Amino acid sequence: MDEVNKIPTVELFAQGHRACSGCGGALAMRLALKAAGKDTIVSHATGCMEVVSSPFPESAWRIPWIHVAFENAAATASGIDLALKKLGKREKTNVICFGGDGGTFDIGFQAISGAAERGNHITYICYDNGAYMNTGIQRSGATPKYASTTTSPAGKVIHGKTEHKKNMPLILASHGAYVATANVGYPQDFIKKVKAALSHPGFSYVQVYAPCPTGWKSAGEDTIGICKLAFKAKITPLFEITPEEGLKFSSKPSQTIPVADYLKTQGRFKHMNEDEIKEIQTWVDDQYDKLLKMEEHGIRF
Amino acid sequence: MVRKVIEASEAVALGVKLSRPAVIPMYPITPQTHIVERLAEYINDGELDTKMLHVESEHSAMSAAVGAQATGVRSFTATASQGLALMNEILFIASGMRLPITMAVANRALAAPINIWNDHSDSFSVRDAGWIQYYVESAQEALDTAIQAFMVAEDHSVLLPAMVCLDGFTLTHVYEPVDIPSQEEVDKVLKPYKAVHAFLDPDNPITQGAIGFPNAFMDLKKDQHDALLNAKNVIKESNWIFAEKFGRGYGDGLVEPYMMEDAEYAVVALGSVCGTIRVVVDELRKKGKKVGMLKIRVFRPFPEEQIVEHTKGLKGLGIIDKEVSFGQEGTVYSEIRSALYDKDLTINGFIAGLGGRDITPDHIRKVFDSLDAEKRTEWLF
């Protein structure tokens, strides 16, 4: 039996790593490598997943893996891409970058944009848990509005983060990349998208929603449940964007739920008042409608 | 071997071309640009089978060089000044990961005020990055050293990155006659790069860039330090190989003495200013003065033994620094005073040539005239 529910049973991200229980990031690594298979090189940005997986002399990686720094996973991978081309090994080898949202939305943004503009043959996978979790839950460009983090605390005057999340998928789509959004609560969909990204001849970007129980103040065993609620509340729309066809939803919730049902599962939102929840509901609806219109009108990037 | 009058930047580019790197990440910055421009021409004219990567910053240039070298191929890049400063973080990682990347640095002042002209403040700011640092005097030496840098960096007793520093404009943009070895001749002295310790191969997966906890970190740093010291022998050896094959040597490879045998007074310097010092030494010798020059060709690893040896019997020594450690003194001066701390010798330091300020023969005459009395540091405006 080498697969269950079409998911390969081979583990290339090995057991024994030091991630917290219920870590969405670790699940993302594990599933992405199931999709990619063993002929894969990973360039990893500094972050939780790098830290928990590579305490010398131990390693959770059963594939060739390199970590250089926080902001340069895409630049490092660009060098790997060309070295493989020179060695004549490019065709049979996948090159994947893993980065958290801090390493992707913020500090790594320039290197990602450069690699995407050049069309380096790289699949960049951002595990998005909406804050700098490794350094102790600080606000990032991916942190949702009103989320309480250690640098955007829910204070008496200012209630958590004051800005909405940066829209990375659409920014990367504007570079001509293959783009997909995924959610670790939907592993088949994530695997399918990683495979599609890997088969794209240039730069591809997959942003996977990955709960962090430690940072979100949620229960570890609730991770998958929160993933499902996020999908139903339209917090994590699931779509693909290709240069040829534009944006296509891969699935839509048959029945949506209010964002309040999602927000209440996490301590980071518990300070929000009714007006604030209402504001987020309006924003989420508006963002989702924009994506629906892009699909409906066949907008290409 | 053919002889041509070429720009020193082209000499570097030719040395790199003859060394056949697999990947060259490139990013423009004055006064380095001529080096990568020539390399881009060789590649696009089909003369050099190398992959070039047009990165969006120097930070990414060094990161991509790390990625390529860690995959198991030879990589080269070039930079200067602010570009080197932007790379700073990755320079330390390249040496810590023991990746024998080679890089040309067209020495230029660090801002502010912004200034595109020559001094050594850029490469001296990364003195402790764990890279081999060559400082070259001529276009010929630039070509030869570009090749030697690969030989030394890739030696299994070293496995560390190397930078070849050449003075911006005063050398990079100067045309000189250069003997250019043939590909066949270079292939005999520089073997193809074969990665033995750092590679990204799905058939033999290894983890590179892991976290080093306190139980491992210090041991790895000691290994790195020892490897840089090991480079001294390989630098000497590669210099000797060039002397034998091409009839050109630069002292013992680490330092190059000029008229030092019976000298009573001498000046120590790095890079292109050594040409000016040679002229003044010749002039003073004609007047019967026993003067000489000691050129430091390699600043890291530091050639302490050679400095002690060549300064024996001197009455006075002057050190020219094209940078200053603010709040202290010139760095070469500090290190030489430290190497000679127990010697009965007057040693004075001179800060000169910052941000492209000319260092004239008059300046050098003044230095030689002021080596009798202990003065510590003087600025040559």
Descriptive report:
The complex is a heterodimer of chains A (301) and B (381). Chain A has 301 residues and is of the alpha/beta class. In chain A, α3 (73-87) runs parallel beside α5 (109-118). Chain A has eleven helices and ten strands. Chain A has helices at 24-36, 48-53, 73-87, 101-106, 109-118, 168-173, 187-199, 213-216, 223-232, 259-263, 274-296, and strands at 3-4, 7-8, 40-44, 65-67, 94-100, 123-128, 178-183, 204-209, 238-242, 246-251. In chain A, α2 (48-53) links the parallel β3 (40-44) and β4 (65-67). The mean pLDDT of chain A is 97. An eight-stranded mixed sheet of chain A has the order 4-3-5-6-8-7-9-10, with helices on both faces. Chain A has a two-stranded antiparallel sheet with strand order 1-2. Chain B folds into two domains: 2-246, Thiamin diphosphate (ThDP)-binding fold, Pyr/PP domains (Rossmann fold, 3-Layer(aba) Sandwich); 255-380, Rossmann fold (3-Layer(aba) Sandwich), CATH 3.40.50.920. Chain B has a six-stranded mixed sheet, with helices on both faces. In chain B, α1 crosses α2 and α6 crosses α8. Chain B starts with a strand and ends with a strand.
Outline of this structure?
The complex is a heterodimer of chains A (301) and B (381). Chain A is α/β, with parallel strands linked by helices and 301 residues long. Chain A has helices at residues 24-36, 48-53, 73-87, 101-106, 109-118, 168-173, 187-199, 213-216, 223-232, 259-263, 274-296, and strands at residues 3-4, 7-8, 40-44, 65-67, 94-100, 123-128, 178-183, 204-209, 238-242, 246-251.
